[in-house]
Automatic annotation (TrEMBL):
Any one Pfam family match given in the protein's UniProt record, by short name: LysR_substrate
Keyword Transcription (UniProt): yes
Name of the protein described by the UniProt record: LysR family transcriptional regulator
GO MF terms, alphabetically ordered: DNA binding; DNA-binding transcription factor activity
HTH lysR-type domain: residues covered: 1-58
CDD domains xref list: PBP2_LTTR_substrate
Organism: Cohnella xylanilytica
GO cellular component, as recorded: protein-DNA complex
Entries under Gene3D superfamilies matching the protein: 3.40.190.290, Winged helix-like DNA-binding domain superfamily/Winged helix DNA-binding domain
C-alpha cells in the first residue's frame, strides 16, 4: 500500500470533501477518488460515506485514522532524518498569504544558514492551516493562536508567540478617510467594504468590532486573495482592512493606508509545530528582527 494513499486518506478525512482534499493535495478529483477506492479495496471495507454534501468517515474509517496517523507521522520523521543526513533539513511550513509574501522572504537566508530548507505552503485562513497541520500535510504553521490549538486527538505539542501587529484601513487616495491620521471603527458604518469571505480571521475580527459599535459591516465585494481586495479598492469600489505588514508594502499610487484607532484591531501570530524539535529548529530563523 502506497504511503501517499494514507496521506490522501488523512487529508480527505480532515477536509470532509474529496473536492477540497484534491485541491490541497494537487490531485485531480478522479485520481484522489481512485486512491480512496484502492484503500477501501485493500482493507475490504468502506472508509467513507459519500453524499452530495461531502464525505464522512465510517466507523472503520475512524478506526483506521486513529491507527495510521501516528504511523504516517513516524514515517515522515524517518524520511526527514534520512534526508537531513544528506543535506539541509526540509521543513514544510504553512503560512497565511500575507506572511508568505511579506514576512517569510527576508528570513529565508537566515533559515538556510541554519541548515533549514523551508518549503512554504500557503493557505488563505488559519483554520485551513490548522487542518494541514492536523493531517500531517505540513510540519509547522505560522497562524493565529486559536488555530494553533489542535484537538486532544492530535495536539500541537509546541508553539511560540512571534509578534503582534495592528490592522490598517486601505482607501483610495481620493476617499475622505484617506486624509485622516487614523480612523475609528465607528467611522466605517455604512461604508462599502471589500473583504475576505466569512471564514477569514480578519473578516471575523472586524465583524465583531463593528457589532460592538452597534452595526453590521456593509460588504460590497468578497474576494479570497489580498491582491484582488487591493485592486477593487484602487478601482474605487470600497475600503478594505489589511495587516500592517501588507500596509507597509503598498506600492499602488492610488492606495493609502490609515491606522485603525481601536484596541482590538490587531492580530497575533504564533509558530506552531507538531513536533517540538521542528519548532525549536525554526524559531531562531522566524523571530522578528
Amino acid at each position: 500500500m502506497h504511503i501517499e494513499f494514507i496521506h490522501s486518506f488523512l487529508v480527505t478525512a480532515e477536509c470532509g470533501s474529496i473536492a477540497r482534499a484534491s485541491e490541497k493535495l494537487s490531485l485531480t478529483h478522479p485520481a484522489l477518488s481512485k486512491q480512496l477506492r484502492s484503500l477501501e479495496a485493500y482493507y475490504g471495507t468502506l472508509l467513507f460515506r459519500r453524499s452530495p454534501g461531502g464525505v464522512e468517515l465510517t466507523e472503520a474509517g475512524r478506526r483506521l485514522r486513529e491507527r495510521v496517523r501516528p504511523l504516517y507521522e513516524e514515517w515522515q520523521s524517518i524520511r526527514q532524518e534520512l534526508a537531513d543526513a544528506n543535506g539541509p533539513r526540509r521543513i514544510r511550513l504553512g503560512a497565511l498569504p500575507s506572511l508568505a509574501a511579506h514576512y517569510l522572504p527576508p528570513r529565508m537566508p537566515g533559515a538556510e544558514g541554519l541548515g533549514l530548507a523551508i518549503e512554504p505552503v500557503v493557505a488563505p485562513t488559519s483554520d485551513e492551516l490548522r487542518g494541514l497541520l492536523q493531517a500531517g500535510a505540513v510540519d509547522a504553521v505560522l497562524c493565529e493562536p486559536s488555530a494553533a490549538a489542535l484537538p486532544p486527538s492530535r495536539p500541537a505539542v509546541w508553539s511560540a508567540s512571534l509578534f503582534e501587529e495592528p490592522f490598517c484601513l486601505v482607501a483610495h487616495r481620493e476617499h475622505l478617510l484617506a486624509r485622516e491620521a487614523s480612523v475609528g471603527v465607528a467611522q466605517l458604518r455604512d461604508q462599502p467594504l471589500v473583504l475576505h469571505p466569512p471564514g477569514c480571521g480578519i473578516r471575523r475580527l472586524f465583524a465583531g468590532l463593528c457589532r460592538a459599535h452597534g452595526f453590521e459591516p456593509t460588504i460590497k465585494v468578497e474576494a479570497n486573495f489580498g491582491d484582488f481586495l487591493l485592486g477593487y479598492v484602487a478601482a474605487g469600489s470600497g475600503l478594505t482592512l489589511v495587516p500592517r505588514l501588507v500596509a507597509e508594502s503598498l506600492r499602488h499610487p492610488d492606495l493609502v493606508a490609515v491606522p485603525i484607532r481601536e484596541e482590538g484591531a490587531k492580530r497575533q501570530i504564533v509558530l506552531a509545530a507538531a513536533r517540538r524539535e521542528t519548532g525549536r529548529a525554526l524559531l531562531p530563523a522566524l523571530q522578528p528582527s
